[in-house]
Design goal:
452 residues, mainly alpha, 3 domains, 78% helix, globular, disordered C terminus
């Protein structure tokens, strides 16, 4: 057999596909095999719709920023509705979907801001139900009664405590605020003389950091302004809620809302959880975050109440002026970890020093130091016996960040919100790691099978 003969093992020659063969399809070119770009997939009509959506999105931002004139037809909800109707047919496009989601989030935040006064009672009631739900579950499991009965009992107890605070504590606080305002106004000149005689301002002036007279004038002005605002603090708080009829309506509505929220809390909680995104098809991170925040709020509230009671009683026994205000300040600032105790010591001691002398200031400082030692050695290990899982540096950063944007309210909610964000991030990170691990494992398995 000659070398030119075909080998039996050689495959037969495949028929050549000529360009004249009508049955053979044209080979796909390299340009046709590439996926078309986004701009090629969008028709001219879709481009017009997306451009209109961008215009309406900008109009939505303008309507939110500029107050709407009285009698004007356009407002953010109408602009948002128009944008949703315009972009809804293109909701599968990434650009249109991004505009819909961002506009919806902005409109939701704008609505919450406008309805904040209406939403405050509902938010407070849900927070109370969130804190009291374990007690309802414990009573129901121990006595084996329907859920509505312990809900009714706890609602009555909460209303009674709130009424006691309203009729006993509020008048005392208001009276002490008025007395503090009068003492501050009468002692402004004495404060200026005391500061002028102090050598601290002379030292600072010699270094060129401040001008003594200008600094004293500013301090005097600030003290006078704040002193005049103290008597109306409670009245301003009540007036911010609305008219007297509105306040009475809210007070009558809160017990009813609390009862129904406690009774149906499991269903309400499940409905709210369904609103949040999933991580790997599950929402376990919400349960973990809710457990952390619940333990933190219940424990911190208990410790704050004990701190306010202890400081108020001890300062009352030592005949320290404005004992109730200092005690309440100690309880409220106790919600701010690591910074609350320091702020309470500084403010309480300064108030007692200016109004009552250094002996009362020393008493206030010793009482607050004793309360801080009691919290760190007894209360926190026994009541707050869990780990939030946040590094102290992260806690301080969250306090400063939330305090910068939201003021005092931000300081109060900084730690629980940071715990929620960190828990959600950990769930997302674990899910992402799991997906990448599976992907790498599949690639390794495919490579091994192909190699074999």
């Amino acid at each position: 057999m000659s070398s030119s003969d075909p080998s039996p093992s050689d495959p037969p020659d495949a028929p050549s596909s000529s360009s004249t063969d009508p049955a053979s399809p044209d080979p796909p070119s390299s340009s046709d095999s590439l996926p078309r770009s986004v701009f090629e997939r969008i028709t001219a009509f879709e481009t017009v719709l997306i451009a209109g959506g961008v215009v309406l999105f900008l109009a939505l931002l303008y309507q939110m920023q500029v107050p709407t004139e009285e009698g004007s037809f356009l407002n953010p909800p109408l602009v948002g509705l128009a944008g949703a109707l315009l972009l809804w047919p293109l909701r599968h496009q990434k650009a249109a979907r991004a505009l819909l989601i961002s506009g919806g989030v902005l409109l939701l935040l704008w609505t919450i801001d406008k309805l904040s006064r209406v939403l405050i009672p509902f938010a407070v009631v849900y927070l109370l139900a969130y804190l009291l739900n374990p007690t309802v579950k414990r009573l129901r499991a121990r006595v084996r009664i329907p859920r509505w009965l312990p809900s009714l009992l706890i609602t009555g107890l909460v209303v009674g405590i709130f009424g006691l605070i309203l009729f006993i504590l509020v008048p005392s606080v208001s009276g002490q605020l008025e007395g503090l305002s009068e003492r501050l106004l009468n002692g402004v000149e004495g404060l200026r003389s005391w500061l002028a005689a102090s050598t601290v301002f002379d030292i600072l002036e010699s270094t060129g950091l401040i001008e003594k007279e200008e600094a004293l004038h500013q301090i005097q002005t600030i003290v006078q302004q704040q002193a005049r605002r103290l008597p109306g603090a409670v009245e301003n708080l009540v007036s911010s809620l609305g008219s007297v009829l509105g306040v009475l309506t809210v007070l009558a509505l809160v017990p009813v809302l609390l009862f129904y929220t406690l009774r149906d809390y499991p269903d309400i909680q499940e409905g709210l959880i369904e609103l949040f995104p999933t991580a790997g098809g599950r929402r376990d991170y919400l349960v973990q975050a809710g457990s952390i925040v619940g333990h933190y709020l219940r424990g911190q509230l208990t410790i704050s109440l004990i701190a306010a009671f202890n400081v108020s009683v001890l300062l009352f026994l030592f005949d320290v002026p404005f004992w109730l205000l200092i005690g309440l300040m100690s309880g409220i600032l106790n919600f701010i970890p690591q910074l609350g105790a320091i702020l309470t010591m500084i403010l309480g001691s300064a108030l007692a020093l200016v109004l009552s002398g250094w002996i009362k200031a020393a008493i206030v400082l010793l009482v607050l130091l004793g309360e801080s030692f009691l919290e760190q050695s007894v209360l926190t290990p026994n009541i707050l016996s869990y780990q939030v899982g946040l590094h102290p540096v992260l806690v301080l950063f969250s306090l400063l960040a939330f305090g910068t944007f939201l003021g005092v309210f931000g300081l109060l909610i900084a730690v629980p919100l940071t715990a929620i964000l960190v828990t959600a991030y950990r769930a997302y990170r674990d899910e992402l790691t799991l997906e990448l691990g599976d992907y790498g494992g599949n690639d390794h398995a495919n490579g091994g099978s192909s190699a074999s």
